[in-house]
Structures are given as structure tokens and as C-alpha cells.
TrEMBL record:
Residue ranges of coiled coil: none
The protein's name: Uncharacterized protein
Membrane-spanning parts: none
Organism of origin: Tritrichomonas foetus
Amino acid sequence: MASDQESLFFNDNEAFTIPPTGTPMTAVSYNYDGTQIAFSNQPGKIQVVSSYDGSLKHQIEQTKTNYPVTGIRFHPSNEKMVLSTHRDGYIFFTNASTGENKCTTRHLGSNLLAMNMDVYGETFAIACADGSLRVYDFESFQRTKALVKMITRSATTQVCYIYDIVFYPDDSNIILAAGWNEKVLFWDIRSGNPERSIIGPHIRGQGLDIYNDTIVTASAKDKRQIEFWDFGTAKKITDINIEQTPGHICSGTCLKVASNGLNAVAGTNGSNLGVAVEMQNQKIFGQSKSLDHPVSSVGVSPFGSSFLVGTDNGEALCYMIRAIADFT
């Protein structure tokens, strides 16, 4: 995180913009050195652009599906390789430079709602519309575990729409899953069960992330939209109010934390903003201009130096952030 001698400076001028497509921005991901951004604002298509000026580097278009992309992740050990999931169950591991799929599989039986990868690039997980999680091994590209909540003697799912999932960075056996029932479940792959939960976050999008032992959530409510939780105790640490704009109720839609824990970005509905949050002091230090449509997906550089805000209409704006010395 930023030191006590540094403060964060938000540049109000967009670094670049992505024109609207008329279809939602459904996924955003920076690569691990922060130089490229992959996003999808058209069903079945992924664009990879420069994080500095938005110039197109690669375009991935699948022939097997034209369903919306529900997740994008660059692989940490080979950043030419991009993992993507589609709502109709397709999962691709693609060379972005050539467009060739190294691996392809498909989950049948329910739609895919969310995807995430562990920090080592060894495992990834998908969240399914039946409320279950499926865990995959990267080397074999085969499913290794199905996580289904057990109630009494019958197997049931999380019995809710799963909006987002994230691996605990210190232990890839732990997956956090945010669902419709205002809970974040802590799934343990080893036992196959949710061991505990956070109760309270009203997550209705890609609104769950974690840095070290701090869980951050974006809730679809008009107060305390951004909340910080302790991983060890599952208790709330603090929260942040995003101010309402005249005539609009502002609710949280999505959130992403920089890999180095410097800052986070959250998207909103109503005010239709992206807000930049300083993680160390849990305060907002900048915001995007107000957009014509709700923010549906966001991404932030691993170093916290820029973020991308995408809307329900496919439009996107990129903003730059700098850490500057504070001599006061």
C-alpha cells in the first residue's frame, strides 16, 4: 500500500475512451504488468488494448459461441494466454496474439455466471447458475471438484444467483462466493463445504475482491455501498458512503482492488460513476465523469496506476492515478 509520505492523485481527464456498442461491458481484466487491458463489450468477442492509449493490440472472436463473456483473466506465467468463460458454458484458453485456442471445454447443464483464477495460475473456478462452483486444474484443463452446499441429507446448491467469486490469495483452497442471499460464503475445496460466511453485503454484480486479509464488497444499496471486512473474523471493519447525486439513488454495482493493495475502483448505478478508493485510509479520492448508463464492469491496474470503467451500453473510460510525495 501507499506509504504515509505518499498521497494518490487522480487525473480527471480520461486517458482514452472506448465507444459504446449497445451491449453491456461484461468483463474487464488487466495483464500482470499493467500494460494491456482485455475487455468484452460485445457477445463472444474480446479486445485487448494498450492501457496507455487504448490502441488495439489483439482481438479474440470465438466461432463456437456468440454468448456474453462472463470472465476474462490473463495467465500470470504467460501473458499472451487469456482464459475466458461464456454464459453458455464454453471455457477457452486462448493465445491472444494468434487467436488460437490452446484448450477448450464446456460446462453443460447450467449457465456460467462468474470465473476467477488463483494467483499462481494453477487453478480456476466457475460459478454456475444452479448455485454450484466448479474447480478446474489448468494443466489438464479438467474439472477436479464440484462444490455443492449440503443441507441435512440432501445436496443443494447455494440456492442463489452467484454474482462473483475470488480465491483467497494466501490459500488457493479457499474460494469466496457472493450470492443473492446477501451472504459471502467461504468455500473450502478440501472439505467441499462452505466453512463460514459474511452476512450483509447486497452484491448484485462483480462486486467482490480481496487484498491480503481485507475483503472489499460493493453493494446495491443507497448507503455504505463499499464495505471492508476482515477475512479472519468475517466481521466488518468499516464502510464508505458514495454520495448521492440530485435526482438519483446511487448504488454499488462492481468493484476491483489493485493487486498491490494501493487502491480500488467501484462502479455505480444511478449516478453512473466510477469512484477511486484509497485502500490504506478507506476513502474516495477521485471519480469518473457521470456516464449515460450504469457501470457494469471495472478493472484496475495491478499497480493501481489506472482503471477502466465500462457501462451497460458498452462504453468505457480509462483514468490515470499517480502516487505523489506528500511533504506537508
